[in-house]
Amino acid sequence: MWSSSANNTTDFAFCDNELDGFHTGYVAIHGWVALIVCIFGSIANGLNIAVLTRREMTSPTNAILTGLAVADMLVMVEYIPYAFHSYLDKRPRSETFTYSWAVFVLFHSIFAQVFHTISIWLTVMLAIWRYIAVIHAQKSREWCTYKRSIIAIVAAYVICPLICIPIYVTTEVQHRNVTINSSSDNSSSSSSSSSSSVSGGNGSSAGDANTTIYYVQMTESAKHSAAQEVNFWIYSVVIKLIPCVALTILSLPLIRALMEAKKRRKNLTTATMLKMEESINLSEGKKRKRKVSRAMDKERQTDRTTMMLLAVLLLFLSTEFPQGLLGLSSVIFGKVFFNKCYVKLGEAMDILALMNSAINFILYCAMSRQFRTTFHKLFCRWKFLNRWLPVPQQAENNNGHTMNNTVTQVTHV
Questions:
Q1: Backbone φ, ψ for residue 198 (5° rounding)
Q2: Contact 197, 109 (CB under 8 A)
Q3: pLDDT by residue (tens digit) across 296-308?
């Protein structure tokens, strides 16, 4: 049931004019793009897990990043057979659209949504942890413990599947008999979204033939109730928009803290230089400079940690917020908007989500010295990678701490 006063007055012709060409062109390459991104992302997240679970990397933040990497990796590993079969398999529809494939599409729509939802809420948890560390630094050790991080991860993996229950009970494999022409059979294209993929065909013929088409669709009872709208409300509001709003609210204080820290360091540097110039005792001036330098290094490290996590959050927002708006528009404007606009952006939304899940490894390598060092110890023996390694520092520059390192101990390359 789609309720909207706009259904009878708006035909969304602009979607036909603007999106048809984009949809047709992108679908032709989506399979290869998705396959490359998923293979890279699966390997990258596997490396993330291997590095983040090392003993020297143990920390509450890294525990959440590990849970995030597991969810992202599962999403991409599962998407590989879907992308290959739906977009790259050139066999006739009658040979590829089988009942077993329709069952896999149903599994795919549920599995991908559940683990992507887990990834979304773990990202929110990561933002909360960082907010506490920056805004309530004195309480962070007490509130953001390793044990509580594990509890939060387990809660995400348990609660998110429950949130997605309406998807399980309102979709099913259905079938209908159709006549397939051999000329169109070989030129068929796949569906535009995993949750509404069409599959079928359990026979082939040289000419026109009747065959059974299997597809994933809303159950008949759901079509005549509010279940379809409930699904879109859950998808657009609970899974997409609420996390995006929460991340925006949490990110603003972090950005403000970065700006204040930059200003504070500038003032501290100026004041230190003036005091050194006024100091008669040279050794006292050097001692003061070392002390201030250590304090500034620690603050820079904290700021770079925040910058890296902000990059993760902003990438997430750029991917998920448009999807939430499109889902909400489908609820407000009804089935016409869904069919003419939303469906044609299905592959584009998929690839954005997949790229967001794959890129964290690059961020960690680019911004975290500890991650690069641990990665090198585990996997790399090539000399050209030595330029990525940090210059050894004295223990005093790290306040004497050598344990409980985190991927978010970042430095400039």
A1: -105, 135
A2: yes
A3: 555 555 556 667 7
Alpha carbon 290 to its chain's center: 41
Reported as a single tens digit per residue, the pLDDT across 356-380 is 888 888 888 877 778 888 888 887 6
Query: Rounded CA gap, 301 and 393, in Å?
Result: 14
Per the CB < 8 A criterion, the answer to whether 76 and 42 are in contact is yes
Say how far apart CA 123 and CA 316 lie, in whole Å.
8
Give SS3 for 213.
strand
Gyration radius (Cα) of the chain, Å: 26
Rounded CA separation 311/378 (Å): 26
* Residues 97, 89: Cα–Cα separation, whole Å: 11
With beta carbons less than 8 A apart as the criterion, state whether 358 and 371 touch: no
Residue 262 to residues 134, 258, 273, 396, Cα–Cα distance (Å): 14, 6, 17, 23
CA 404 to CA 106: how far, in whole Å? Answer: 43
Q: Name the token pair of 16.
A: 């036909």
DSSP assignment, residue 397? G
Distances (CA, A) of 260 to 84, 223, 322: 49, 54, 31
**Residue 189: which of 52, 30, 63, 77 has the closest Cα?**
30
Note whether 7 and 336 are within 8 A (CB).
yes
- If DSSP codes are grouped into helix, strand and coil, which group holds residue 178? strand
Phi/psi at 173 (5° precision) = -85, 125
Alpha carbon distance 72, 118 (integer Å): 9
Structure token pair of residue 15: 């979607």
Q: How far apart are the first and last CA of the chain?
A: 54
Quote the tokens at residue 199: 């599959």
How far is Cα 27 from Cα 11, in angstroms, rounded to an integer?
24
pLDDT digits (tens, 9 = 90+) for 45-69: 999 999 999 988 888 889 999 999 9
CA distance 52 to 376: 13
For 260-304, the DSSP string reads HHHHHHHHHHHHHHHHHHH-S-HHHHHHHHHHHHHHHHHHHHHHH
Structure tokens at 391: 């210059």
Higher pLDDT, 68 or 333: 68
Amino acid identity at 255: I
- Report the predicted TM-score, pTM, of the whole model to 2 decimal places: 0.75
